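subagent[fold] <- orchestrator: predict structure for attached chain, return tokens only, no commentary.
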Amino acid sequence: MAIRRTTRSTAASGVASGVPDLDPVIHQRVRLGIVSALAAGGATSFTDLKAVLELTDGNLSVHARKLEEAGYLRVTKSFVDRMPHTEFDLTDAGRAALASYLDQMEAVIQAARP
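subagent[fold] -> orchestrator:
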């Protein structure tokens, strides 16, 4: 696999010296799954997101908190029929971060193709 060397100006777009400068918050497999699911499906309940991604309660909670701390995820807690209900949604910053991540991955893929 050959990755094209880039100039300083392209380094700002996320590919520097053949090594992509990917957002470490989104690059983790579970967090990428969370932001991708929310980008595709909009606001989603904790229960539905856990089922779609096949995660445990603890695993989803930990990764959702990291995304929330980064400002990529909004958490809304309420009660439905007296039961706690948690819903996740992407923030504008989360959508922008995902778009940037996808652009960077696309650049890596383009550089790797013959």
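orchestrator: received. Logging for downstream: Strands lie at 15-16, 19-20, 44-45, 73-80, 83-90. The chain has six helices and five strands.
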